Amino acid sequence: MKEGKRLEWILECLVHVIGRVAVKLDEVQEVVGSGEKQMQAFNLCDGSLTLTALAKKTGLDAGNLSRSVDRWVKSGVMFRFEEGKEVRLLHIYPIPAIAPKRPKSRRKPRR
Q: Does a structural domain hold residue 110?
């Protein structure tokens, strides 16, 4: 692994670890919103996509996505890196898919 790529990978790991300690999952979900496309867009922000590519991949309107990204950055759940005219986005950590809840059992607990 090249030294620059390794350093980039280590920094990304640090962002995720510190993010999990600093911001609880329910707070991140509240900021991102409950829309499926919004959550998908947020989770795709791993630093590899530009804002334009992200809009195309998710099917979200670029203007609405840009406003969402601004809100996420201001709320501290995402970082924005600018490379010339390109903007790359990195979330503090992806929101995991939530497993469906099981129905509660009506049985009495064993003694």
A: no
